Amino acid sequence: MFGTLDRYLGRSILSTSLLVLLTLVSLAGVFAFIAELEDVGKGEYTAGVAAQYILLTLPGVAYLLFAPAVLLGSLLGLGTLATNSELTVMRAAGVSVGRIVRSVLVTGIALTLVVAFLGETVMPRTEQIAEELRLNALEQRLSSKGSKGLWVRSGQQYVNIATVLPDQTLLGVTVHTFAGQVLVESLIAARAVREGDDWRLEDIRVSKFDEKGVVTQEQTSASWSELSSVNSINNGQSSLISPELVQSLSVSSESLSARNLYQQVQYLKENQLDSKQTELSFWQKIMSPLSTLVMLMLSLPFVFGSQRSGGAGQRIFVGILLGIVYVLVNKLLTQLAFNAGFSPVMSALLPLIIFLVVAIVGIQRSA
What we know:
This protein has eleven helices and seven strands. By secondary structure, it is α+β, with helices and mostly antiparallel strands. Strands 1-2-3-4-5-6-7 form a seven-stranded antiparallel sheet.
């Protein structure tokens, strides 16, 4: 499966791509650490904790920069072979353009598997640990965040939130109120939506516990301030959960795994809520690793077209320009298709198809 040509071209692409990725991630980490220094000194947030936080977020940065790094790495690696006339020798020896493209795609498939693994396993976990570390050091009210959702404690009150959507909507809210070590009240709400500094809770059930038994009340909708003024759940807490904490926890869809996004879609559908935007994020996550293959294909016309012309500086410029155009046009086309009524899966797939066609046409013309 992996011949001498596959391994040789693969090493050229991998070595330069990893070098570019390491450079980009290092620069992003340095700038992010400088930005975090503004919060150093608050609570227990020291420079050491900030450094740990930045290190934990680097897998996410690597995931976002992976495709552009592969594009630059391919332009530099294959461009060096073209400058040294090695590609010309390969073609003179009878190696077709199609055979070279196949070797590049073999490397691309391997890189696609790597970035998919990074986005599904490593990045979501490290992002979660990083946010917990930062918030705890800043003395926020975060207790823990895991497979059972987010747990927040305030005095004798414990709040569990199953899901925090990117728009800061809370799903599956449960509030347990204790008197000492005795549970006196539980509030369950299907959904909570921000209303300024307050929260609008929907599908509410409040259960009060005493020596006589359990008394349960149900409401369709009510604000948190209304509920806390009527029931015993205020405890001096003016808000269900602080907006700052929710802002920190409402991570972007890029930081979530496809599995997490799929669970959100199922939750929204089961509760008859609009799930199209989350479905779009899910399919974008599925299609994202394929961007690596498309980036490799886009680099080939410039490599075949230049052969011995142009130095490393020109290739870096072309790579940066292509990366910027790809990211901007990809987001624009996806949103335009979605707003035009395309299904989430077609909206996410359409930009990849267009760029792939452009790459294939470019390769045919430059070969």
